[in-house]
């Protein structure tokens, strides 16, 4: 059994320590991908990223996926999701089963970030706390956390085009989000497993939205997971093991026989919500369901993988021992993680919120008998979007979609109305006497000056160059 010490992590009996297993995997990745200089050089080569943005590594998608949705079907799904987002409170109140079904089918990529924010309640939190992220972002932060965060930045999805460059804008935004969270919850601080969670969010939304998504995951979906001692994750490990006895008695007996504690194989699965384990198409589908239905999806994925890998005597012939079993669970067969197979297995597995809560109470009683009271008093877990919305009912204003493109009128409506009444002769005269219109997107040779060479175009100049990180005001960029 793992021994607990101070800090957001687990210390093993053999003396090796991990603040989370994310650090352990990061070391494996760094050894396989070469030096940092090689990594930075890789970012500048002519490598074509896959449709998810990966330019290498285990999670890169090879070639075209045969499961790709036909364009006409995708357009129909987008129209349905836009209607849902425009009437979110009504859909969640009266047609939640339909929302759940559409999440199981997969959220359209163009709307995934926005849908996640609505499902998690992050949209409401953001609207109810205007300027909060900006305030936290402007603060210096606690040096003890900043140093650890900076060291972890390059370990998060090092083969994704957003994070491949050291000091790049993906890493900058990741730093901002993680720092803001340590200021938002100073008593909790930072845990390494939060970094991949925040990185996945940043792949789909601006930094401010990713911050509120992270807040909701840490406080509503997985409360206590990232607190000192990791008691919540150990408790969920025991719940997973108890549920496995019902789902796959063969796998349960095998793990019990060789005294393999759940925390040895499920910590990274649960703390990183499988973002570092599954192929990327499967990660996104699991997260779609996770945001809608809550932590039961994470339990179901874990149970499916354990059942597939250890669920029959034939499969156990090759792993007669603790070491062999752990090696098997570290290298899950790709066919079991394939998107269509895994999603269907997860949907069909009969494990409900009630089953999890019932087992939670049972394991909590055992924990108190063997360990005493929990040191971390985390808030109650919310099982998905409907529970979160019921606990904190939003207003229509909170759910209102912000316009993605805002065009400032150069003149007031009254002045426009007056000009519309001018005669054709007056308009012709003005056209002949007026100078040519300013070019709102001057070429480099224009030196950003108007045609007369007098005034630089600042107010209505071109968009900021790509070296500017994505701000929450630029909502249109991820749709």
TrEMBL record:
It comes from Danio rerio. This is TBC1 domain family member 10A. It comes from the Eukaryota.
